[in-house]
Amino acid sequence: MANALAWFSQSGVVQGLILGAVLAFLTAILVMNAVGRAVTTTVNGWSAIRKCGQPGNGVLVRAACAKALPVVNVFEEAAYWTTTVDGSGQTLSGGNGYVLHFPPGKLPPHDAFWSLTPTDTVGYMVDNPTHRYSVGDRSPLVQNADGSVDIYLQHEAPSSSMRLRAATSRTGCPLLPGSSS
Fold this sequence. Notes:
Elements: H1 2-10, H2 13-38, E1 40-43, E2 46-49, H3 59-68, E3 81-82, E4 98-102, E5 115-116, E6 135-136, E7 149-154, E8 166-168, E9 178-180
């Protein structure tokens, strides 16, 4: 038995199994990313996978959805729109400040709720000095004089007059807003 174990450990079989498993994992990630990109809808820089949660959409689409959004409803129940760039196409960064402007009467349409949640690249909510992790239709949003609404996404804690309109991020941490309806 000892001879068999010694041969097995020196034969390269274990290393081959490990290498094969790593290559299979990396291939699966590449395939899921490609399928995810193929079924993603992008509107005004915001992206969503509309096929998530639907029965009969195939194992590769289900895998891509599970990778992007581990627990997800059908799109008609909950839409998860994400972006990684600002209005000029630059990658979002917690080191910058942003203003999301909604014209009068043009807040996101919804039947239940909407929210804006800054996250890091992994999808975790970003720690911030105000301990505010999302802004949405249930937030006491303050309207501008013309009826529009500005939501500030920035690292610094907002002034007291802007506090109800801001979600803050950590300096240097990518800012990835997500929205549900």
